[in-house]
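Example for tutorial group B:
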């Protein structure tokens, strides 16, 4: 969704739609979330300490949809005024279905944006000397290697940091 690329608008929408926890994100949860996010999978919001306020999400989606649907309705009103009302009914059904299907897409998009935002916040705490954009894939590889070697949770942070410092 292009309108979520603007950082000021995106931040305002995310703060309005999501409730975040003040608890810090644990190191292993950050690594798991980073791996899932890099693979294009949905991240568990509970592990990253946020939840959606569904009422606010519907309000934002309704506003965004209004910016699309109102001009569309204005443009097509004259057309549907002169054709058979069955076409109008069918188009209303299609637009209504598209509206509700679109909310599912919107829901997934803003959830992914919030997950990435929370991952970056936690990254700044756990990896202050390694930029997220440059090292997220490398940390994912190290984490996957650690899981294959069955590194214990207590030793995971030192293992990842030692491997990163070798690079």
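The residue assignment follows.
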């Amino acid at each position: 969704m292009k309108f979520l690329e603007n950082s000021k608008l995106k931040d305002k929408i995310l703060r309005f739609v999501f409730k975040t926890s003040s608890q810090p994100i644990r190191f292993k949860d950050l690594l798991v979330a980073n791996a899932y996010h890099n693979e294009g999978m949905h991240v568990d919001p509970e592990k990253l300490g946020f939840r959606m306020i569904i009422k606010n999400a519907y309000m934002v989606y309704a506003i965004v949809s209004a910016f699309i649907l109102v001009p569309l309705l204005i443009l097509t009103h004259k057309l549907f005024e002169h054709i058979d009302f069955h076409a109008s009914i069918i188009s209303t059904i299609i637009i209504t279905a598209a509206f509700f299907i679109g909310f599912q897409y919107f829901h997934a998009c803003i959830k992914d944006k919030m997950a990435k935002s929370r991952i970056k916040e936690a990254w700044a705490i756990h990896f202050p000397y390694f930029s997220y954009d440059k090292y997220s894939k490398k940390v994912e590889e190290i984490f996957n290697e650690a899981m294959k070697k069955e590194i214990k949770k207590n030793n995971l942070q030192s293992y990842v940091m030692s491997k990163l410092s070798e690079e």
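The helical segments are 7-17, 27-38, 45-48, 54-82, 85-126, 132-148, 153-166. Compare this with the pattern of hydrophobic and polar residues in the output above.
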